[in-house]
């Protein structure tokens, strides 16, 4: 951590700040210049809130230099982590090809879609049972009944299932039945829920919050890892910007940046990012070329009747065509599934 | 809801879209022009996702015209709602003057601050017992022990207490002991938690999410109201923008806008918005002039030792001076406390 | 400037970086820690691009600690600058009360509005002659003819005039006739235009760009000052965020922050920020309470027929009522006009 | 254009609004519902500012349904436009591979880089002669002297040159010597400059403003086209968001979206977007997979000594390796150069 003092700070004030630093258990190294004086603070600064020092009358600003995360940090774990999702490896060149309807609507629907996406080449099935909806009046999902339908589709196809957990109350059931537990963008900083995830060893798919910085996103993964579950997969799904033509702005720079900061797999959800079905295939190709470890894509057998987000779902035929193209790009960027 | 068709849409396609509209239980009114044709959809469109229609090949775009909220809507409830917080009215000219430490650190600390802010003129005491922290390694609050300390401070001063609820698990205890239950910015769209709030009649202080639009914020209030608890107070605490000099950008336009859209009280938290103690008094005055129904301000008897956010806390003396100035502005904008 | 090295950097690499620093004419002070090593760079770093060092394989990140601006810097000029606009002082407690139509439409219109706002208490007249419009098909303003109409209104009322300059081509005419030359938000980083402003001594009203950080905004003022014209007034007019209900988000924290960073006056334009007439009076009061040095407000005698931005203009009567209220708040924050 | 009236609007008020619509030369079609009444306005609404109607007491909101651009509109020009840049076709499957130093520093430097990038497979040379810098104290480019050096490099290599125009003052020289005239992000809404571009027939490379919506960006292209020069190429270079780890957030969804809205070529500048050299190759591949019509990449023979943006420049060897990989992806997305 670095403390920058105000111009013309007296020795007395300088010494008071140094003492403050030392009482926090840090070593203080002073660098003096004509126009500025800085104090380099050495030690474990992870637990220290820089704003504590900003209250001092002589302090101009305080800057963190060390990353505040450890378990997720690539610096302490150089090689890619490969997560095992019920037999499907994710990371280190192995891709999660997750597809399925935004929400589970009926057993028949989810089984039909499951068979179609497996046929096309998907290796995991997604489907929403508990749906986070902006409006209390919108369809909220079929809940546990929907989860049962997903399990039936798994029996039929053998595809591991991915679905969203919105409350710790259902964690035990998810632990028993769900292969990859999704935490949605709106719960990325629901710290109470994150801490509870240590109670399961199931892999967690952590979506990026709509306005989460890379660091905040990793810190949420760190919460899960610190609670005892190190099987975390990060999922970029678009961030909120001033542009409203698309639902969100897909940030593909997140892939190379996150891979530099952490050792965890990074997958992409192009369906929610753009919110328009005709953007999905193009952005899926772009995400693959950018090195994603997986693609989560909404596929619906009858989008115009979808109870939610039909407008961003692909028909199974289109999904099959997309996977054909992805298979041609994959070897160039050394990915496989 | 309005559906805009693509240029040169055939009669056949137009009729297909009309049928789609009617199967959703809406009336379709067609407006034809040379360059565009639109369909005005009449009926209860609140439950309908516009993206459902966007999947049709002939549809260019779909626009909502009706607000998706009802209970919180000023249109159906023209006069200001006044919320009673254990005897303190909030709204309709009555202000909530909430002050206290960011986190409860000890019984002595919270009682000292409580006495000081009451002396200065505050009418409610705030203090964090459960703290949402970006890092799992930061101080997480004293929890139930901290809540007990707040209760002791209430016994000593008679000030109603305001503190944050992070999990439904503690709702019953909060229902029993907390006068105004705060839902933090990061949980604004924790829909599972919002729905549970119907189990209490205690007023809820709903903070705006860092990237929540006015409508999304109101929709979260609508969740709480629809679940059975109509005692909701909205709290603007700054939004996230590209500007990083301040922690967040305080959006004071939110006050007049929210008062036009809803009948609920709107209070402001200038301490978290700027993240700097020297911005608090200026922005508190601005918020009052903009018509806020309350001010939530961090006050700490010894900011440099605060376990969290010391950098944005005022000393009790400064808070007292600020209230003096606010008392001079209040009558001009017809506010009182 | 501070250079943070990657963990486990060798002495050899460290020395290479030190040499790089020294070849830029800076002194290098090394601070060593187990987990990180930093180099404090002393000297005039204003001209040095930190990214130059980031290319080195051993460098993790580079941080600037010195402000990159000098002439506008409060640190080197502690007292408020007061700008004289043809006899009207702006800054240091003196307010610029600027009012008038968004665009000049006719001599009669601008003279009528000028008389009305003067009567209400305005001390400067605004009116757009050259209009920056997003669409090439929108009304672009009356140009020089409009400028002449403003001059006639000035003769009639004695009010100094404020209008926007969009091109260096007209600078000489503006220098001769305009009392306060406005540079619009979209030209805030039109560096070619900024440099030319040194050719006049007329005060410049520099609007904040829609996505300009405080520092970038000050750097644009620094461009004007470095070119030879130190008479710069800053104007906050709202920034672009994810919120689209209002045209922009008015950032009133900009007032206290800019006053801390610079010695220049800061005025506010509440009309363009919200884009809605019913937000203007509330936000004008808030801006005054936040310590603004002036208010630029759109007033039109017949908003429904305005050729541009009628929706955000006040009628003269409403403007008069607003000034009455502002007169009651002004003394509390030690402002006068 | 659609006008939504407030609930319970009287016939009298409805008729007043209808009259207002008709006086603007539009046809008014009324759609009545219990909860809302809307007026569909038919006719040429491109020139009409919706805010004109919002001033009416009975109007709730006004929505545009027609795109405000014509010449750039894909609807009126279905096939891709192919721009000829001194013999190099851009668009419709043909890519502009633009490479070179951020700024021209010496004749030797620019000729060396030009030869190296041509050797690697680039088909155009970029280099900054006039540099838009945030600070008046930063290197501002070699100006006309730099332009001469670019011309020498063109003589040596035959590569068409691309460089930024910051002022209309130099338009004639650029018209004579520059093959592709770049307009920078900060001048995207310098409307005075845009209008002057009609004086040349040289193709224009229009960079997206840091906070420009797709529509605003297209409207700036429309300005150039309406002024008489239809040879416009759009360039995505990242937008400003809350994320500060990268210099900007590259918006690759812009490619498919812009291609749907307009018929103009869309190229991508991955160097400026991320601001970090190690992000360039990954994002260049992603942009190609997303269907870009070109890539503008900074290449410097000695990045650590670059006078500007060295940190985001590739060495010629790395650029050659990148082009090898791009050649393998290109046929899959039907691109060639």
TrEMBL record, chains A, B, C, D:
Its EC number is 2.5.1.54. The keyword Transferase applies. It comes from the Bacteria. It is an enzyme of class 2 (transferase). Keywords: Transferase. InterPro entries: Aldolase_TIM, Class-I_DAHP_synthase, DAHP1/KDSA, DAHP_snth_FXD, DAHP_syn_2. Pfam families: DAHP_snth_FXD (PF18152), DAHP_synth_1 (PF00793). GO terms for biological process: aromatic amino acid family biosynthetic process. The keyword Translocase does not apply. Residues 1-67 form the DAHP synthase ferredoxin-like domain. GO terms for molecular function: 3-deoxy-7-phosphoheptulonate synthase activity; aldehyde-lyase activity. SUPFAM superfamilies: Aldolase. Residues 83-326 form the DAHP synthetase I/KDSA domain. PANTHER family: PHOSPHO-2-DEHYDRO-3-DEOXYHEPTONATE ALDOLASE, PROTEIN AROA(G). This is 3-deoxy-7-phosphoheptulonate synthase. It comes from Sellimonas intestinalis.
């Amino acid at each position: 951590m670095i403390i920058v003092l105000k111009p013309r700070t007296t020795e007395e004030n300088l010494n008071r700040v140094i003492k403050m630093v030392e009482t926090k258990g840090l070593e203080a190294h002073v660098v003096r210049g004509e126009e500025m004086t800085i104090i380099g603070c050495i030690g474990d600064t992870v637990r220290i809130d820089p704003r504590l020092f900003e209250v001092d009358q002589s302090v101009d600003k305080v800057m963190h230099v060390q990353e505040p995360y450890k378990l997720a940090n690539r610096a302490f774990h150089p090689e890619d982590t490969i997560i095992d999702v019920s037999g499907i490896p994710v990371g280190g060149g192995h891709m999660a090809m997750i597809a399925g309807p935004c929400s589970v609507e009926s057993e028949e629907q989810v089984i039909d879609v499951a068979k179609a996406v497996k046929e096309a080449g998907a290796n995991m099935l997604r489907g929403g049972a508990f749906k986070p909806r902006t409006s209390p009046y919108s369809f909220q999902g079929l809940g546990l009944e929907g989860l049962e339908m997903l399990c039936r589709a798994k029996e039929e196809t053998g595809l591991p299932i991915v679905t969203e957990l919105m409350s710790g109350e259902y964690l035990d059931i998810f632990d028993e039945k769900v292969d990859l537990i999704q935490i949605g963008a709106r719960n990325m900083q629901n710290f109470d829920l994150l801490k509870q995830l240590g109670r399961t060893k199931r892999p967690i798919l952590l979506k990026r919050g709509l306005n989460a910085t890379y660091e905040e996103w990793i810190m949420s993964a760190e919460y899960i890892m610190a609670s005892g579950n190190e099987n975390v997969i990060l999922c970029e799904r678009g961030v909120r910007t001033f542009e409203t033509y698309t639902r969100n702005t897909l940030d593909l720079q997140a892939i190379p940046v996150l891979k530099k900061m952490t050792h965890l797999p990074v997958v992409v959800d192009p369906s929610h990012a753009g919110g328009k079905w005709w953007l999905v295939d193009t952005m899926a190709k772009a995400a693959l070329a950018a090195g994603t470890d997986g693609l989560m894509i909404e596929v619906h057998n009858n989008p115009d009747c979808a109870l939610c987000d039909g407008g961003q779902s692909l028909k199974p035929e289109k999904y099959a065509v997309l996977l054909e193209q992805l298979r041609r790009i994959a070897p160039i960027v050394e990915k496989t599934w």
